[in-house]
Amino acid sequence: MILVTVVNKGIYDLSPIIFEFKDKIQEHIIVYDIDYKEKKLAKRLKNSIIKINEKYNISNKISFIEVDEDKKVDMVNIQKKLSKLKPNRLYLNATNSDISLVVVLSGYILNQGGKVIAYDKGDNSYNIIDKNGFENYYIKDSMNLDDFLIFMDYNLISEEDKEYIISNRESLFFLFQNFQDMFIIRTLLHNKQLNRIKTKYRAYYEHIQKLNLINNPVCFGILFEKFVYLKLIQFNFDDIKIGAIVEFNNEYSNEFDILAIKDNHIYTIECKIGGNINIKPNDVIYKSDSLLEHFGYDSKSIIINMQKDNQPLNFKAKILKRARSSNIEVYNEYKFNTSDFHNLVMEFFGVKSRIFLLGGIDLEMIEIKNILDKKGLKYKNKNLSWGAKLSSYGLNHKYEFVGIELIKDIDLDNISYIDIDHHNELQDRDSSISQIANLLNIKLNRYQKLVSLNDSGYIPAMIDFGATIEEIEDIRKKDRYYQGVTSRDEELAEESISQMQKKGDIYIIKSKSDKFSPIIDELYGKNVIIYRDNELNYYGRNIKRLVKNYQDLIDKAEAYYGGNYGFFGIAKDKFSKNEIYNIRDNIIKILQKKSN
């Protein structure tokens, strides 16, 4: 892919396409006008692309073409330069660029068999246009905040520790459950009236100590930002930071209370506590408006101000009108209503509350649960087993649901749903825990990587990664434990193995337990059929043959496969005893049949 990007007004509309196709771009040509500002912008864009390439270990060629948009000869020359390249590999990225240059380039590229990409920032989608028409696609790889800041050539100086905030969420929620009490406690702390707090607000005292407010009563505003952050992480933002100091250039930086991104749109949240004395609404709105200019015309801001009584609100109607004309909303109350606040965030930012739905329990699912707990995210867990179905949970249109290894057995029309899985037709995806890490914009530690490899590629994947024998044994032992394998199941596995049969290089074992993992762990590396009267699994070579022969059963969720084509199974209780035995015999025939 050769991407031709035309620079004009800014980078906001160009960067989503560059980021979406970053892994496919072999050559990048940046076209700009001789105007000084555009030349400077083109250099910024090149530097940003280089940084993104370094971050994601991408290598491609980047070059410039400078033109004078008012000279016909330059328009002809740019076509001559492009004619030296393979025309069917040319893609034009020119959203909101100079219309005359776009018309000339798009006409030439289309006539040569290339394509034009038209990005729609409103719904984060794009059209790919060729001579025969166009097709629409939604962006699959939206930027996180770090990537966006790199493209804008801004520097993230620092941000607050989110894990520390989450570890104190109980105390933060308690402190801000009643703002009238909070204002009184703040005053008492300023006046060093601790005994009054101990007697009249005794329930608060432990939390005040934990949050270090006794020696530092001036930090209520900072704690309020943390409280709001905890409210916001339940939404499906692509990324969110708190206390982020962003340097726009060498002379100007700003600390954002909360900075978020969703579908390549930037959102800021300003958190205030106080009345008319220390809050100047016009100044707050003016500052928010000026900061939004750094993030593009589609960026938005919410200003939250909690005041201590129900006196006339700080932000009057005239001020609110001005705010809304600048893509700014204001939540100004003396009682924090979670439902009202959530509705404002959802409607104004276009996001939804997110709930994770856990599938069949094993080591990977337990570690995913641990990640969600550590991040303070909402999830539902019904302690389901293998073959868990989505219908086990109730869904509605209000939330975005993230289903983890759940069979979709219900209608999902108009339901916001993210499917996390890596089995059957999703075999080529990363493990579920890796997909969750990507969704949450976090990195897995070594232990979590081993959990991931165990689930997607079993023991061979862990060996290739460099896991020690002790690590592999530990992972396998824990996986069996969370699958519900007992010491009795381990004993029955040994008994089952002692009675196994062999046909060619295939070991055939009728299991005395419904837990197959202790058997296959013992026979790792061999081709093994393990079955009972109501289910069957095969582990070993030529899984793709079985997938091809039993695709109809897979489509009906009566069979499955996974583990990087490491296993194939017949779903439990889908077939009679005789049918299971017939399937067993047929699998043996398929596996022993010589390839043509």
UniProtKB/TrEMBL annotation:
Database matches in InterPro entries: Card1_endonucl_dom (IPR015093), Restrct_endonuc-II-like (IPR011335), tRNA_endonuc-like_dom_sf (IPR011856)
Segment forming the signal sequence: none
Ranges where the Card1 endonuclease domain occurs: 223-312
Residue ranges of the TM segments: none
Protein's recorded name: Card1 endonuclease domain-containing protein
One MF term in the entry's GO annotations: nucleic acid binding
